[in-house]
Amino acid sequence: MRKSVIKSLIWGCLAVMLVSFLIVTIVFFYGVKNSYKVESFNNMRDCVTHVKPIAKLSLDYSTSKMMQLFDISMRQFSNMTKYDLIVATPTGDVVWSSSELKPSQVKPHLEKALKFLPPKGAYKTTGLLDDVYLGPTLTVGEYVHSDYGDKSWAIFCSTRPADTIQYFIDIMMDIMLMELAALLLMTVFLYFFSKNITTPLKKINEALKAFSKGDFSRRVDITSFNELGQVASNVNTMADSIESFESMRKAFVSDVSHELRTPMTSISGFVEGILDGTIPPEEEKKYLEIVLSETKRLSRLVNDLLTASRFDNDRQELQKTSFDLFELAKIVLIKFEKEITEKNINVTIESDDERHVVFADSDAITQVLINLIHNAVKFTNAGGYIKIKLRDENNKCYFTVENSGDGIEKEKLKMIWERFYKTDDSRSTDKSGVGLGLYIVKRIIDSHDESIYVSSDVGKATCFTFTLSLL
Predict the structure, then answer these.
(1) Closest to 57 (Cα-Cα) out of 37, 74, 43, 40
(2) What count of other Cβ atoms lies within 10 Å of the Cβ of residue 107?
């Protein structure tokens, strides 16, 4: 069973929040508890400090009137502070107590407590008088000594924190209820927040599933401009690219099939005609020349495919040397002399110098020139012109091929460098290629870390320019 990443993340967040709440609650509870204990000890210490003078007077002057005053004062302190006070002799006899405790029951426990009481200074602890009050206690004890004789009393100030602790427990329960309410609200928030994440993710996933099945028409609706919106936009862009590539691939298969079938049919037919005598001997040379032409056409197609494959796999290694680009251009032009003559094209070469020595792979640049000039000859109108221009500037040689003709629409200019792309899908004009020429040109120029760009005036002319480094 598949486990949702978003749900796991939500449950993880809730678990972390719950644990955090519990830790905060426990730490807060024990912090308050310890704070209460420290504050209680300090207050009881102050209480003992305040009753010591009265106890000392009563110890020095043990008259009935003084003991009556002592009783009144001690009860006032006990009522005001809510602390239990016990005054006892060093042997454990109760002199005075704020609670209704029977001296006979208290004495054995006081005797144990008096063993921990230092002769001087206060003593504070928990559990010292637990047996007296039959429950947990906090106690501060201190001796008070008479100035007359060897008399002394022990004063014990105690409190039972059980009720106070329960009060804090109640507070903690209220805090935990509020934390649970916050956790519930956070759960609702995370649910709707996750919906904002999972909904577009599901749409993206559905689109990707459709792509995996070959349906590249699916698109993801972009409802926001956050990271998910950017992902959706990138998925749509990827789909556009894949759909475009798929269309080009299908067109390529169709074009290659056509390009291979046509010459192969011609070659097969003419060779069979020569072998079976259908073609008379005096016509054999003519048809053999056609066979040779179709064979060269097949060879160019295969070479283009192999070159494109090498660039796609980054296996094309450049062998750079120095050569005259002007001289190379004139040699390439001669290859197209027949086509130029047949279409009555006016060809001119303009140069700002007699030599343009560049440092590049001469074989690769030869292919660039062949492809660019071949395109120019192919798309130039009958009686039109081709201009080739060379100029040096900033240690670069700028090579330009301009030809008259129908031109290329603006929206198609950015796609002409793509593999298998043909500006004329009907093949009515471009019947001799499968859309690899300019792709190869771009890859060769890019591999030289140089630039190539195109401009076109529809119905008038098209101009290609690339750069090469001068030696």
Answers:
(1) 74
(2) 15
**18: phi > 0 → left, psi -120 to 50 → alpha, else beta; which?**
alpha
- Out of 92-106, 178-192, 250-264, 414-428, least confident range: 414-428
How many other β-carbons are positioned within 10 Å of the β-carbon of residue 127? 10
pLDDT per residue over 168-210, tens digit each?
Answer: 667 667 777 777 787 778 777 777 777 666 677 777 777 778 7
Identify the sign of the CA torsion 444, 447, 451, 455.
positive
β-sheet bridge partners, residue 468: 397
Give the number of other Cβ atoms within 10 Å of residue 466's Cβ: 24
Cα(22)–Cα(8) distance, integer angstroms: 21
Instruction: Give every CB contact of residue 20 below 8 A, 6+ residues apart in sequence.
Output: none
In one-letter notation, the amino acid at residue 75 is R
Neighbour order of strands in the sheet with 452-457: 346-351, 385-393, 396-404, 461-469, 452-457
Cα–Cα dist 27/196, whole Å: 36
* Phi and psi at residue 420, to the nearest 5°: 70, 5
| Closest of 381, 382, 356 to residue 369, by C-alpha | 356
CA distance 468 to 38: 86
Token pair recorded at residue 427 = 């093949």
DSSP output for 118-148: -SSS-EEEESTTHHHHTS--EEEEEEEE-SS
Residue 328 to residue 388: CA distance in whole angstroms: 12
Alpha-carbon distance values, 72 to 96, 110, 159 (Å):
11, 23, 20
